[in-house]
């Protein structure tokens, strides 16, 4: 009996694992908590940072495919000269706020993680998501918890260059998307091939619309996943119910046999036989033992 039960329980466990993996595969990660983690790691990893030097951050192995760089700048130099990294081109005369002596910029290339962290309904991403976040930087810590906004009142916008763009239909011109902090999407046309303009920090990518028929196919795939989920859930529910019933019936039988055995100890006996491991009474007849009387 014990062996059998363990099998059932492990089967149940496997089904639950399978279910949670199904749910997890459609989950999107939160980039804000990732950035909190990155800030902590940057502050821990980089001691005696040099101003104006770009540092590559080595990420834990479970983030392979993502690239992160940071740089610390004097805000006066940032305002005077701007700053270029491989993707973001910040021109002069951009004002970081609040006003501080130093700032730190976090550059992220989400690579093959892009679709895990970001999603544009009805569109396909044809480039990785690039992140560009500014923080205040003080005495000892490379990055403070305080984020900075960029204000451009005069001069040119910030340019984002997408070098590696996935193949797409010729007549589908990619569109720039900004993922704003409030969770909204802002769409804009490219200003030059694979170049987007922006007036602030944030997360950016290029998308093309999903063709209608492909959209329908995806919907039906999603529908199938939910259908399978429902089926598996129902099945697990049924198994749990059956297990419960079997346990209940077994418990009831046990107490009945115990009761009968107790009765037999009290002088009433009956014949029993065994099926498997279950003791059953053969006949309901109850014989009363003759009572021997002492002289
Ligand atoms: C930092 O990473 C970039 C892109 O992965 C690479 O081109 C560059 O050589 C790296 N720099 C250093 C100092 O490791
Ligand atoms: C990577 O591992 C760390 C712990 O080492 C964990 O906090 C984090 O959530 C993991 N991230 C992913 C994307 O699995
Ligand atoms: C991204 O690609 C790397 C190999 O280049 C791989 O190790 C990693 O698991 C991939 N990440 C995701 C989320 O697919
Ligand atoms: C950034 O690149 C532009 C051209 O792409 C150049 O004109 C500008 O001087 C560069 N700025 C810095 C700070 O290197
Ligand atoms: C996506 O497209 C479908 C039909 O083309 C439409 O019903 C749906 O509202 C769209 N979703 C979003 C988020 O725009
Ligand atoms: C983008 O360009 C198309 C024409 O190519 C135009 O119809 C559309 O309004 C533009 N969108 C924006 C946000 O400027």
UniProtKB/TrEMBL annotation:
Membrane-crossing segments per the record: 225-249
Keyword hit for Membrane: yes
Keywords per UniProt: Membrane, Signal, Transmembrane, Transmembrane helix
N-terminal signal peptide: 1-25
InterPro entries: DUF1191
One Pfam match: DUF1191
PANTHER family: LEGUME LECTIN DOMAIN-CONTAINING PROTEIN, PROTEIN, PUTATIVE (DUF1191)-RELATED
Name of this protein: Plant/F17O14-7 protein
Species this chain originates from: Medicago truncatula (Barrel medic)
């Amino acid at each position: 009996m014990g062996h059998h039960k363990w099998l059932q329980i492990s089967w149940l466990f496997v089904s639950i694992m399978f279910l949670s993996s199904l749910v997890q595969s459609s989950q999107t990660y939160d980039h804000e908590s990732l950035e909190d983690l990155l800030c902590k790691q940057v502050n821990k990893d980089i001691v005696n940072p040099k101003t104006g030097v770009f540092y590559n951050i080595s990420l834990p192995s479970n983030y392979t495919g993502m690239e992160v760089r940071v740089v610390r700048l004097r805000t006066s130099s940032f305002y005077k000269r701007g700053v270029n990294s491989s993707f973001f081109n910040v021109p002069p005369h951009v004002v970081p706020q609040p006003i501080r002596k130093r700032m730190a910029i976090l550059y992220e290339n989400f690579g093959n993680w892009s679709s895990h962290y970001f999603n544009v309904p009805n569109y396909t991403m044809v480039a990785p998501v690039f992140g560009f976040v500014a923080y205040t930087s003080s005495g000892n810590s490379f990055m403070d918890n305080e984020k900075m906004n960029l204000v451009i009142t005069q001069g040119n916008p910030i340019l984002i260059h997408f070098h590696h763009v996935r193949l797409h239909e010729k007549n589908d011109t990619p569109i720039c998307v900004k993922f704003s902090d409030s969770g909204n999407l802002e769409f804009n046309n490219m200003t030059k091939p694979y170049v987007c303009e922006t007036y602030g920090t944030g997360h950016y990518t290029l998308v093309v619309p999903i063709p209608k028929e492909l959209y329908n196919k995806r919907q039906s795939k999603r529908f199938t996943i939910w259908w399978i989920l429902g089926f598996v859930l129902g099945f697990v529910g049924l198994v749990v119910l059956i297990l419960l019933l079997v346990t209940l019936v077994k418990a009831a039988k046990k107490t009945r046999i115990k009761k009968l055995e107790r009765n037999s100890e009290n002088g009433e006996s009956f014949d029993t036989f065994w099926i498997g491991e279950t003791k059953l009474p053969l006949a309901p007849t109850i014989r009363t033992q003759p009572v021997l009387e002492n002289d």
